[in-house]
Amino acid sequence: MSMESIYLAIPLSALIGSLIAGLFGGVIGRKGAHTVTIVGVAISCILSFVVLKHVAIDGNEFYGDIYTWAQIGDTKFAVGFMIDRLTSMMMVVVTFVSLMVHIYTIGYMEDDKHNWPEDSRCGDNSYQRFFSYISLFTFSMLMLVMANNFMQLFFGWEAVGLVSYLLIGFWSTRETAIFANMKAFLVNRVGDFGFLLGIAAIWTYTGSVDYREVFERLPAISHTTISILPDQEWLLVSVIAIGLFIGAMGKSAQVPLHVWLPDSMEGPTPISALIHAATMVTAGIFMVSRMSPIFEMSDTALSMVLIVGATTAFFMGLIGIVQNDIKRVIAYSTLSQLGYMTVALGASAYSAGVFHLMTHAFFKALLFLAAGSVIIAMHHEQDIRKMGGLKKYMPITYWTSLIGSLALIGFPFFSGFFSKDLIIESVHEANIYGAHYAYWMVLLGVFVTAFYSFRMFFLVFHGEERMDEHTKSHLHEPARVVTWPLIALAVPAVLSGYLLYPMVVGDFFKGAIFVNHEAHPAMEILKEEYHGIFSFVLHGLMAPPFWLAMAGLASAWYIYLKKPAIAQWGYDTLRPLYTLLDKKYFADEFNMAVFAGGAVGLGKALWALGDRFLIDGLVVNGSAKITGLFSSVVRHVQTGYLYHYAFSIILGVLAILSWLLFGAGRI
Amino acid sequence: MFDGYLLSVLIWLPIVGGVLTLFAGDKMGARPVALLVSILTFAISLLLWTGFNPEGYQLQFVEKLPWIETFKINYSLGVDGISMPLLLLNTFITVLIVVAGWEVIKNKPAQYMAAFLIMEGIINGVFAAQDAILFYVFFEAMLIPMFIVIGIWGGDNRIYATMKFFLYTFFGSVFMLVSLLYMYSQAGSFEIVDLHDVKLGLVPQMLIFLSFLIAFGVKVPMWPVHTWLPDAHVQAPTGGSVILAAVMLKIGGYGFLRFSLPMVPDGSRELAWLVILMSLTAVVYIGFIALVQKDMKKLVAYSSIAHMGFVTLGFFLIYPIIANTGSHEGSLMGLQGGMVQMVSHGFISGAMFLCIGVLYDRMHTREISAYGGVSNRMPWFAFFFVLFAMANTGLPGTSGFVGEFMVILSSFKANFWIAFLGATTLILGAAYTLWLVKRVIFGAVANDNVAALQDINKRETVILAALAVMVLALGLWPEPLVNVMNDSLVHVIEQAMASKLVN
């Protein structure tokens, strides 16, 4: 098989599985559906590893089109692939996590029929439909990361959004779910609005949407300015980069477009792991890294990236402390971690951001799937206040969760330690506007991360057993299809950090990611200071992030296991702060009142005033009325009496005669 | 086959077939006859596609016979890359309308089918006519069957709607007739190609442009002459709404390309800002209005107006692009986008109205609040509805994306703010469409009527599946369509840039 057909087979095998399971789910049944999709994604996954080897070890690359989507003048829109190290790494992460989630889903969705009302036919094939969706997602995500042009990037970008919409609202009879999925789609569309304008700007000034052509033509527009507001000249590349980044803010849930991600937890847990933690939400991070040649040209855009990311990293983490829903704690953790990745991008440490993307994909997918395992055991109870002491009932879930949590807080020797330390160090070395603020945010965020992570961990697995007797009597480790993916994900959650040397410090991403080292030397400084993994760990053990993490862990232990009274005391004394966090800074209330309410109000006003009153009321029906009025007057002339007509004929003849006699003569 | 008179066959076969359908009677014969005629017409129209040469802009399948020799009016037919796809759209949609009305129309089915077949022939005439008077005759004649369709098979308030529809469009076209007569006095011919070449002063050009703007603007319809459309849609039976949205609105857009831009390029240049302003208003203002509609058909009707805004926007970007960049480069993207949007909107709006028809046939209401949780009872219907809704929001991979994407790209070349306002459709279009989906399709079963719903039958599945295939095919591979239209649109750009001023 040639490499080209392997590239093609990777997304298509996922798509074919999805189509079969989706369209013929009723015919092939549950077993048929999960078999066909798992085989499809397994093929994608195996072939992705083949590609990774081909690219990363054998040093090959691929750049080419598959077919011409449309040719307009000189602009060619194509569907094609760009396979380099960044792509192949993403492909492996996406397909591997997806495969684990597929297998896990067999257990998680086993008795999904109970989640549907009796009278709903949606419950009939919901199992098959779910598999169809997650395979469709895998296809879309692969198209996104493999794209070699902006049109296809946008296709993948919106297609993953579509599947996310379908999956958040999967349990479509629940009002909260179908509100959440619409919200997710609309907020993402706000991001896509900026994204599309960015693409339009790129096309306008380079005449192409092909990555390679665009990058080649970038130097020519590096000093171009455009005037958007009168008398203001803005650097074109800044406008482009900010437009693209607004798209990333939507997809990667950065403040203020973060509001959809916590609500997306309405979807079944496997997709929270796959879409809303490991892969789709990191599309923004991937995209900015892929577009590094553009972002490197604009310090303005990088500063914006840095500040937005730092704000998300810290302030979203804070909310995680007060959440009681097991999935929502992890969701806010995801927001915060996405903030870390974004900060790395802003500091021009793209490789560190992508590295954290990878480690995070493993440990966060693990944490979500472990949470799902807990949820199954707890009979779909998600409130951590009603859990406790689960350790002895679910050892595999317990140990894998511990691995995931330690990786998340950046405990030494676990993957998150390496990737997070790199980000913090790189921000420390960054020199652009906002770097100082960002450094403090990500540093303090380490404490917050450790605190909320282990608050949840202790409340779920340790301490007193707060569930009711019925639940307790049924507590046990779920089936092997659930636990095996946990174990399989735990391995890279520990080990993937050791790829630090080749991926970040080495030249792994050379050619795929571009950094202007003279203007943004942070990564170069880090590379110079790197003296092997051992000294990196040693150095980390003496640095503030490690001690902050330990402090967070210890505080969580003390407050939630040793002296629960402190937690209560905290709620009471810090009531305003608690309310602020509990209400998520009132972002939802604000959006509902201003944007949703404003749009509907404006629509109503325009309809009543514009269409009904002005256009229809005054102009259309008005002119009809005037015509009617006029004709009702004129109608009196047509009486039907012959002598009236005769009389008017005589008058007419008289008038014409007098005009002929007196008027015409004078002309 | 049909060498030399293919277009005549496509015009007269459905008209004669319509008359035959009338005679076939309500009891048995009318439906099969109508189906046969519509399928036959569609099959024959495919010969246009296979026999079409995409190289060059010259008219193809030309026919010319003297009609009223005193005034040099000819029965002159021909198609280029612009009209051919629209003609095919018409023959395709008509088949679906016949199938859609199969069991549903109980009142005078023979006459119903006949009206649509006759309308099909007339609309084919509109797209094929190359003589301005012949065009005008077809353009006006089209109103009659539509008037009858709404007037007989329409809803409770159908008289108001038909009158509004008729007067609005008639009002618009009268001005066009005056302009055509004036140009005849200058050119000595009614042949459209001759009118393309006639020299005109700037003031006459601007007046003619405005008369065309009224005539075609009402048809599209553009803001602020759009208010007939929601009323007509709400009152029309499903088939009427489908042909109206899918095909008849396209005649307005077609008119701008065939008449306004080539005949009065200088007038177009002077007044392009007006069209662009009206188009952007359609996108933004109508988008907000669509959001608050309580009637499904009204919502989709307003959504149609907003989507057609991209058509007129794309067509007239050429002038601001020249003003901004000094070259016409990039304006082809706008024209292509506008044309693809027309074809795509034909599929998507047709599908949306058919979907609403499916619901209306079962529940006899179009009120959004009467529904909720339809997917629980009609999962396959929900599948199609969500697919078409996503196409309506311009999701990539569906046809709805292609045109909007191209027009937004092109409009950035003209002006940042045009692109900015145009791109708001990403948010507004998603908002009103998905909110509709949420309230109608998703949720728990809302009431006993919804609980009693039956999923789509085979006949309905075939119709919706056919449209779904088209929506996806055009979204995944627009190149065949783009390629067919390319040379004709390039020619329009040349015409639109060539000044015709007398001095």
Q: Can you describe this structure?
A:
The complex is a heterodimer of chains A (667) and B (503). Chain A has helices at residues 3-23, 25-57, 85-108, 126-146, 150-168, 175-206, 211-217, 236-251, 260-263, 269-278, 283-290, 292-295, 299-322, 326-346, 350-377, 395-409, 415-429, 435-461, 469-474, 480-495, 500-505, 522-529, 532-541, 544-562, 564-573, 575-582, 587-634, 642-663, and strands spanning 62-72, 75-83, 225-227, 233-235. The mean pLDDT of chain A is 90. Chain A is globular, with a radius of gyration of 31 Å. In chain A, 56% of the residues are buried. Chain A is built from 28 helices and four strands. Chain B has helices spanning 6-51, 83-100, 109-128, 132-141, 143-153, 158-187, 192-197, 202-219, 228-235, 238-263, 265-291, 296-316, 318-325, 331-363, 374-377, 379-392, 399-414, 416-423, 425-440, 448-451, 458-476, 479-497; strands at 60-68, 73-79. Chain B has a two-stranded antiparallel ribbon. In chain B, strand 1 (60-68) and strand 2 form a beta hairpin. The interface between A and B is large, with 62 and 66 residues.
